[in-house]
Amino acid sequence: MGDPDVREAWAARLAAWLPAAPADVLDLGCGTGSLSLLAALSGHRVTAVDRSLPMVELARAKLAGTGARTVAGDASRPPVAARRFDAVLVRHVLWTLPDPAAALRRWCALLRPGGRLVLVEGFRDGIGIPAAELTELLAPLTERVHTERLSGDARLWGGPVSDERYATVAVPTPARRHTEVVDVHLFVRRGDEVLLARRANTGYGDGLFNSPSGHVEEGEDVREAMVREAAEEVGLALTPEDLRIALVMQHRAPSGATRVGWFFEVEHGAGGEPVNTEPHKCSELAWFPLDALPDDMVAYCRAGAKAYAAGERFVLHLHEPGDPVAYVPDGPARAVALAVAGER
User: Fold this and answer.
1) Do 88 and 117 contact (CB within 8 A), yes or no?
2) Residue 22, preceding bond cis, omega within 30 degrees?
3) How confident is the model at residue 2 (pLDDT cuts 50, 70, 90)?
4) 3-state SS of the chain?
5) Sequence-ordered list of residues with C-beta below 8 angstroms from that of 217, at least 6 positions apart, any chain
6) 213 bridge partner residues
7) What distance in Å separates the CA atoms of residue 241 and residue 188, rounded to the nearest whole number?
8) Which of 6, 95, 147, 330 has its CA 20 to 30 A from that of 246?
9) Which tens digit of pLDDT belongs to each residue from 105-142?
10) Domains of the chain
11) Pairwise CA distance, residues 238 & 105, whole Å
């Protein structure tokens, strides 16, 4: 950019596209560092990357004294370790890459929350990437996309151009935090026996035994949820103080969905005599010895009961895709007991 008018035009565009200075800007495919220099002179902290060592040396000389960092590396996989940036700036690079979609995903992952991609591209005679195609590639990754046509601004190019040239500023969709369902399970103990309920008409595990259980609802703690579920399913009027923790289990369903189950123990007689209060969801209640559980059980619940009988307190139960919901007597073991601090 030897022409001062061209530099001024690009500086004005960058001021509009980049966050307010000072921000951390990653310039990928920086070439000789022209845009990096404009960003650095505007007060940004710039890291400039190019795969060509001669280009990196030219950029390093051009950026001397600005505090900018120059690095040799592949723009599609920038060698920046775990660093994160406020803006990733890329000019006339994306169309040259073998997998533009994968590069865009990686670039989005380099941004801090609220960061942006600034992509300058073009298309002429079948070479490049049209703006509509780039917008389509960005759609699953971003919450906002703004495209500016640049072909009509002759100052950027040192003269008139007729091909498609544009800049796209894209703000990635914020990463969603992983969430898991929390459910509660009750082992009502009568000596060496536990109470199980046979599911019916629920759409999940119908015909199989499991312990009285349910989801924690918004605003409840796990003890409150267990007290409520015990009353709803087997008519027990428990208090939180009646409950003792049996174990905690993270469970992964065959679908891949995960949840955390809190299993509680209560002695028979606490809260009254269990009765089937939901006959439309439960076809029978029955007592079984802990060491002789029925085979026709929900695998998740059976793994919890077996861990409870073994004195295990923290357990993973991780189905693989294709596993049945029902316990399979000769099937692979899916439960893993976790070591507890202080145990040897």
Assistant:
1) yes
2) yes
3) confident
4) CCCHHHHHHHHHHHHHHCCCCCCEEEEECCCCCHHHHHHHHCCCEEEEEECCHHHHHHHHHHCCCCCCEEEECCCCCCCCCCCCEEEEEEECCHHHCCCHHHHHHHHHHCEEEEEEEEEEEEEECCEECCHHHHHHHHCCCEEEEEEEECCCCHHHCCCCCCCEEEEEEEEECCCCCCCCEEEEEEEEEECCEEEEEEECCCCCCCCCEECCEEECCCCCCHHHHHHHHHHHHHCCCCCHHHCEEEEEEEEECCCCCEEEEEEEEEECECCECCCCCCCCCEEEEEEEECCCCCCCEEHHHHHHHHHHHCCCCEEEEECCCCCCCECCCCCCCCEEECCCCCCC
5) 225, 228
6) 185
7) 14
8) 330
9) 999 999 999 999 999 999 998 999 999 999 999 999 99
10) 4-172 (3.40.50.150), 181-337 (3.90.79.10)
11) 51
Average pLDDT (195-204) is: 94
For residues 326 and 51, what is the distance between their CA atoms, to the nearest angstrom? 54
pLDDT digits (tens, 9 = 90+) for 235-251: 999 999 999 999 999 99
Tens digit of each residue's pLDDT (9 = 90 or more) over 278-305? 999 999 999 999 999 999 999 999 999 9
What pLDDT, on a 0 to 100 scale, did the predictor assign at position 81?
A: 85
| Each residue's pLDDT tens digit, 202-214 | 989 999 999 999 9
Q: Which two tokens stand for residue 182?
A: 């929390």
